[in-house]
Specification:
mainly beta, 180 residues, 6-stranded parallel β-sheet, 5% helix
Length: 180
C-alpha cells in the first residue's frame, strides 16, 4: 500500500545533507505500524537545521505501533538546531495493544545527536486513556555543548531505558508525564 511504500522509501537511506540551513519535514498519517523515520542514518552537517516529524492515525481504528524516529541515527551537527516530534493516536475503539513512541531505538549504537549549539528538542506523544505513550524509549539523545532546551510531554512515560547526555552549557529540561 501507499504507506508501506513511503516507509520503504525512507527506510535504509543514508543521507548526508551538507552544511547550511536545512529543513526536513516528514508527515505520516496511516494505520497499523507507522513510523516517520525508520532504519535510516541522517547527517545534516553544520548550520542550523529544522527537523519536524509528525505521525498520526487519522480516523482508522487498526493501529498497532507508531514512532516518530525508530531504529535510526540522526546527527544534526554544529549549529542552532530544532527537532520537533509529534506522535498521536486519538482514535477511540483501538484496544490497548497500540504503543506510541517519540524516539525509539538506535542505528549502530547512535540515536539522536544534536551537536554543539543552542538546540531545541520537543517530543510530544499522546495516546488515548492509559495506552502506552513514551517520549524516549531505549535510545540515546545527545544535546552537545550549548544552551539547549529539551521538552518531553506524554501522557504515560517520559523517558525509559535511555541515555540522555545534556553536554556542557545551560540546559532547560522539562519532562511531563502526568500519570506516572
Amino acid at each position: 500500500d501507499l504507506l508501506r511504500s513511503v516507509i520503504d522509501t525512507v527506510a535504509g537511506v543514508v543521507e548526508a545533507v551538507g552544511d547550511g540551513v536545512q529543513t526536513l519535514q516528514v508527515e505520516v498519517i496511516g494505520n497499523g505500524y507507522t513510523r516517520g523515520i525508520a532504519g535510516t542514518s541522517l547527517e545534516l552537517g553544520s548550520g542550523s537545521s529544522l527537523t519536524e516529524v509528525s505521525v498520526s492515525t487519522g480516523t482508522t481504528n487498526d493501529n498497532r505501533a507508531q514512532s516518530g524516529i525508530e531504529s535510526s541515527s540522526l546527527k544534526a551537527g554544529a549549529g542552532s538546531d530544532v527537532l520537533n516530534i509529534s506522535v498521536q493516536d486519538s482514535t477511540p475503539g483501538d484496544g490497548t495493544e497500540n504503543f506510541l513512541r517519540g524516539i525509539s531505538g538506535n542505528l549502530n549504537g547512535s540515536g539522536v545527536d544534536m551537536g554543539d549549539g543552542d538546540d531545541k528538542v520537543t517530543v510530544e506523544v499522546s495516546n488515548l486513556d492509559d495506552r502506552p505513550a513514551t517520549g524516549l524509549d531505549n535510545t540515546a539523545l545527545l544535546l552537545g555543548a550549548g544552551n539547549d532546551s529539551l521538552k518531553i510531554q506524554t501522557g504515560h512515560t517520559g523517558v525509559s531505558s535511555t541515555k540522555l547526555d545534556a553536554g556542557s552549557g545551560t540546559e532547560l529540561p522539562a519532562i511531563t508525564a502526568p500519570k506516572f
